[in-house]
Each structure stands twice: as C-alpha cells, then as structure tokens.
Amino acid sequence: MQSFLGGNEMLRIENLTKSYGDKVAVDNLSLHIMPGEIYGFIGHNGAGKTTTLKACCGILNFDKGEIFIDGLSIKADPYGCKKRIAYIPDNPDLYEFLTGIQYLNFIADIFGISAHERKEKINEYSELFDLKANLAQHISSYSHGMKQKLAVISALIHSPKLIIMDEPFVGLDPIATHKLKQLMRKICDEGGAIFFSTHILEVAEKLCDKVAIIKEGKLVISGTMSEVMGNTSLEDVFLELEEKDA
Ligand code: ATP
C-alpha cells in the first residue's frame, strides 16, 4: 500500500490537478499542513477551493498528483484516510427524515464509536452548540444554521485528526460562530489540523496559523499569516493579487 514516509504532515497535497472537461479547476497545486495548524484557503468564486477540498476527502477523483492524509495515500487507502478525517461541506446534505439524534447515531455507527463515547461527544457538542433540545426533532424541521451545527457535531464524533471544512461559518449565528472558532483552536492545540475555505478574510486573519490563496486553480501565495500579510491586511493582499493580470 502506497504511503508517504517523508514527514509527519497531516495533509500533504502534491501537484494536484483536476479538470472538468476542458476547464482546469485545480492546476498543479501543492500544500502541506502540519498537526496543530489551522490552515485557511482563500480564493474568488470558482477559484478551485471546493474541488481541492473534495479531492482531499476522497470524494472527487483527480487527474494528476498525490494526496496523503497522515501519511496515507487517499487513492491507495481511501478507507484508512476517511477514518482520520471529517468533511463538513458548504451545504450539508443530511437525511431529513431522521431526527437529529438518529442521524448522529447513524454516523457514530459508521465509525464504530462505542455507546459510551458517542454519548459523551453528543452531549458535549450539542450543549456547546445549543442543539440538545432539538435532537429529538426531525432534521426537516431544522433551520439552515441548525443543520450546519448538526453537521459540525456529526463530524466530531469520531475524533478526526484532520477536519476539512468548506465555508463553515456560513449560516451560523454569531454565538455559534464564536464557539466554532474556539473549538477549532482547541482541536488544533490538542494536535489536530484544520483546512478550511472561507470568504470572510477578517476571520481567516485572526484565526488561521497559515493561509493559501488560490486563483484560477493555481496557488498564488501560501505561508504563515505574517509571511503572507507582511505589514498589510489579508484583504489588501487578496485584492492586490486579484487585480494582478486582471
Ligand atoms: P466558490 O467560492 O464559488 O464556492 P470554489 O473556489 O469552491 O468556488 P470550485 O467549486 O472548486 O470553486 O470550482 C472551480 C471551477 O470548476 C469553476 O470554474 C467551476 O465552474 C468548475 N466546476 C466545479 N464543479 C464542476 C462540475 N461538476 N462540472 C463542471 N465544472 C465544474
């Protein structure tokens, strides 16, 4: 089984290329994310963020390159990788005919989480996101934000080492946004890693350890916040890069 033995990156993307027909959505992109890092992924609409994130999760095939999760190849060992990651899509597709608690138990069953452990996790996170009182309701009755919270809770049940999130703050109220940011920091302080896309540059600037900016499928800049921003703001850097060659 192919695995990467060179380092201890939680996520290693090497020369990722993905096209849809003639459209090159991601072009030779390489990124490395270490344990402990919150890594922001920034880019204009259609830049290639979702395509990259889905490729990392093993739910979208790619044409060239390699992706390693905690040393395992997503192509050669997709199950090994999926045990280690959680993916929160921008628009979570949940089973609306289930209640919140039925859905969380379903996800816990998939990952083989014991009754004791799942109870602890569900209690902790549903209290944190103020969803406990709604878990007996059908998901079809949830608001967009409640569905987003449920998707976040379900993603944490198996204690993933790497969390991949596509615009996780969209639809969350300010309290839930604040709690999610605190939780992201805690998970990474305890050795996890987070790779997430966002259009909210102020949040990225304050929250992320590192950031990458993608433009028309190509990585244009990446590094620590201070390396990327210098003395300016992330917004200034982003706007300057977007205006270049426009
Ligand atoms: P946004 O910020 O709007 O969510 P994004 O950076 O996530 O955008 P992607 O969704 O990865 O961008 O799309 C990258 C490019 O690939 C776009 O030009 C998009 O139109 C194209 N694309 C994405 N999915 C498909 C698909 N299934 N079929 C054809 N083209 C696609």
Q: What does it look like?
A:
This protein is an alpha/beta fold. The chain is 37% helix and 25% strand. The protein has nine helices and ten strands. The chain has helices at residues 49-57, 78-84, 100-110, 115-128, 144-156, 174-189, 201-207, 225-229, 234-243; strands spanning 11-20, 23-33, 38-43, 64-69, 72-73, 85-88, 162-166, 193-197, 210-215, 218-224. The strands form two sheets. Strands 6-7-8-3-9-10 form a six-stranded mixed beta sheet, with helices on both faces. A four-stranded antiparallel beta sheet has the order 2-1-4-5, with helices on one face. Helix 3 packs parallel to helix 5 and helix 4 packs antiparallel against helix 5. Mean pLDDT is 93; it is low at 1-5. The site of adenosine-5'-triphosphate has 11 residues, from strand 2 and helix 1.
